[in-house]
Design brief:
24% helix, seven-stranded antiparallel beta sheet
């Protein structure tokens, strides 16, 4: 019996030793994780801490936005079919959901709901989001991070930039995020995207700035930040923030083959948002300055002819009479290389600089004319509401056929024909080719000349559009194109 008790005591002691060893193992793991981490692990942990800190500083200011639309006088067989997306066919089709389930009967008054995100930027209840999140809504409902819901008391929008300002009211102050400076953001910087993807509230994804100054052809005014931080349907209008928790962009669009994140998302730079938002709050509309010119990028082919480097400056292909550009002495064939002391490299950049320019003072222009640098002074004027001729991204609004081909064209002026070495050639000048369009896929470039459509000679833009109006883009349209290096036929299909 004594031996049994002794054996039992030994077993008990052994178990206690084992338990102590296991506990010490967990303790040592915890200690090594905090005290003995390798430099690489420590750096990763520091980055994780930065993500956590940035998320916490802005999360309470991120809101969900529902845009509710009432459809009246719908009966069975009329209006939007059950189970379909009411935004089908728009550039933002993937960013909305029809909340009506399939099979629900049609009623005289039916409500449809779009889902997006936003961010509070002031304690008074001022919210930034996208125009396409709230556009056409009969009611805008804002749900805060803590679950409270508010009906918007004011909504102001700017469709040209896809920016909207929404206001809600309460007796107490709202949490809000701080706005940063998107001009100092660089490619490779870490960023976080916050919002409500697929209706999943308070979601944070991480990535980097992949590119700047992107234009993708979905709005009239574009200067997007590109990021690989996951942006999905429902993220629209939410903030893109830096590691300091400052908003440096408003998430706007995705490039997607299947409706989800493909690693390419786009955000409006916050400095553009500030400029637009300030005017929306103050006056409910945006005042833009203009030059009064037609412009196009400087390609390698054009650079040799106009005595500049590729992507150095912006080529003027037309000057409208009695406009600021005309009064300043600008001429067709001039290359604007600086505006108000800032170098310009593409039409979109010049357009945005001009539009936000102070209209109360003169601005310097540096121009290359016939290979010589010339300094001019220009006083911008407000762009008339019925005139918007300077948008380098608008694919010929008056010609749906040209837009489908991804082309923008201009009548060929004698001065530009001479510069291009095409004196005596009749046709139209291609001024822009939209990325991913049929025109780009066939190798068309700005500076190319279209002289024939379906073997019919053309001598003007109006003649080109007339020929295209009777052509079938599904079957293909035959163009004869001239360049300095030769001529060729191309077939474009939409």
């Amino acid at each position: 019996m004594a031996r049994i008790r002794e054996s039992h005591a030994i077993c008990t002691a052994a178990k206690l030793v084992m338990v102590a060893a296991v506990l010490s193992l967990f303790t040592s793991v915890k200690a090594s994780a905090t005290d003995n981490a390798s430099p690489a692990v420590a750096a990763a942990r520091d980055l994780s801490g930065a993500f956590r800190s940035a998320s916490e500083s802005v999360m309470d200011a991120v809101v969900a936005i529902e845009s509710r639309k009432e459809e009246h006088n719908l009966s069975a067989g009329q209006g939007v079919p059950e189970g379909t997306n009411p935004f089908q066919g728009s550039p933002f089709e993937d960013l909305f959901r029809d909340r009506l389930g399939p099979g629900k009967p049609s009623t005289p008054h039916r409500s449809q709901t779009g889902i997006g995100s936003g961010v509070l930027i002031h304690k008074s209840g001022l919210i930034l989001t996208n125009n396409h999140v709230v556009e056409g809504a009969d009611q805008v409902i804002v749900r805060l991070h803590d679950g409270r819901e508010f009906k918007a008391v004011d909504v102001k929008t700017d469709p040209k930039t896809d920016i909207a300002v929404v206001r809600i009211q309460a007796d107490e102050d709202f949490p809000f995020a701080k706005l940063g400076d998107s001009d100092v953001v660089e490619i490779g910087d870490w960023v976080l995207a916050l919002g409500q993807p697929f209706g999943l509230e308070s979601t944070v994804t991480a990535g980097i700035i992949s590119a700047k100054h992107r234009g993708i052809g979905i709005t009239a005014r574009e200067n997007f930040l590109q990021t690989d931080a996951a942006i999905n349907p429902g993220n629209s209008g939410g903030p893109l923030v830096n590691l300091d928790g400052q908003v440096i962009g408003i998430n706007t669009a995705i490039s997607s083959s299947g409706g989800g994140n493909d690693g390419i998302g786009f955000a409006i730079p916050v400095n553009m948002v500030k400029w637009v938002g300030k005017q929306l709050v103050a006056e409910g509309r945006v005042h833009r300055a203009y030059l009064g010119v037609g412009i196009q990028p400087i390609t390698a082919e054009l650079a040799n002819q106009f005595h500049v480097s590729p992507r150095e400056g912006v080529l003027i292909n037309q000057v409208h009479t009695n406009t600021p550009a005309d009064k300043a002495g600008l001429l067709s064939g001039d290359v604007i290389v600086e505006f108000s002391g800032k170098a310009v490299t593409d039409p979109r950049e010049l357009q945005l600089l001009v539009e936000s320019a102070d209209m109360e003072k003169n601005h310097s222009l540096k121009v290359v004319r016939d290979g010589k640098s010339i300094d001019l002074s220009l006083r911008p004027e407000e762009l008339p509401e019925d005139l918007d001729t300077e948008s380098p991204s608008a694919m010929e609004a008056e010609s749906d056929q040209l837009g489908k081909l991804g082309l923008s064209v201009q009548d060929l002026s004698p001065s530009i024909a001479e510069q291009l070495g095409m004196e005596g050639v009749t046709g139209v000048l291609i001024t822009e080719v939209l990325a991913g369009s049929p025109g780009q896929r066939q190798g068309l470039e700005p500076g190319n000349m279209i002289t024939h459509v379906n073997r019919h000679a053309i001598d003007s833009k109006s003649k080109l559009m007339s020929e295209l109006s009777s052509a079938s883009l599904e079957d293909g349209v035959l163009l004869f194109v001239k360049t300095n290096s030769g001529s060729r036929f191309v077939v474009l299909k939409s």
